[in-house]
Predict the structure.
Amino acid sequence: MVASNAFKFVMLPPQTDKTREWARRLADAVPEARVVVAEDADTTAREIVDAEAAFGWLGKELLAKATKLRWLQAPMAAPPAGYFYPELASHAVRVTNFREIYNDHIGAHILAFVLAFARGLHMFIPQQLRREWKKSPLEAGDVVHLPEATALIVGVGGIGAEAARLLAAFGVRVLATDARRTARPDGVVELHPPSALDELLPRADFVILTVPHTPATEGFFNRARFQRMKRTAFFINIGRGMTTKLDDLVAALRAGEIAGAGLDVYETEPLPTEHPLWTMPNVLLTPHMAGHGPYLDERRFEIMADNCRAFAAGLVLRNEVDKASWF
């Protein structure tokens, strides 16, 4: 007998060994879910028609066929531009994502950038490559004393909150902006709305972007905002590359308007080999891997399984997205 709260859950292509494994595990863990693995376009077009739920990328043609769809699990923490489109935003389907799974890994990556700049590693690493033994003069001011430093976290969601906790442990005073939070997370001494950003920038020794790419954040970090920062401040972006105009960042660095930059994400990825950021002496670059670390696939599965159970029971879903805002 089929349970009254049973539903059809379609795993959208492309499939991998991991998604096939998830499908098998979901079928065992959530008996109410009738899991269908769609391996090709024809199967997808047929199976999506009466599916109540789905996982993956859903284009507008498939959305138009999905007459019963009420929940879509996005395959990423913050899907890139193109995942959300007007027809999906206006549709009644609820969308959830995989946010929160990277908090510890990316929080540690942010701290690595901060500590590297605070202790001058952006200067000593090139010296090492040149086999050059050269100490900085004690009075040069190349050390940032963290108990006297201020960090501004732009977008203090799960990742930003973990970064704030770590920074506070080193004595850093943490300011933050966020579009949704109303209560300060641990480690944050001041929480402001996004509209306060320009007033806060001149106060920070480290400006840390963790915001997703949305219509409101695309290209919002530009030359004017770099010019509002301290000339001794460092800029760090581990959110999304499309939030920051790299030409403006390069111009600000060349003009000495900021002290340096640490980037894990870029407007164009991979970063072109001829891009000037590669050889700038006050820049640290990592290739969009701040989130790398153990347990990620298991965390993704847990969110999907929890949401399957909640969907079957008519409960609140984890990580529901404001579709119009993309996050």
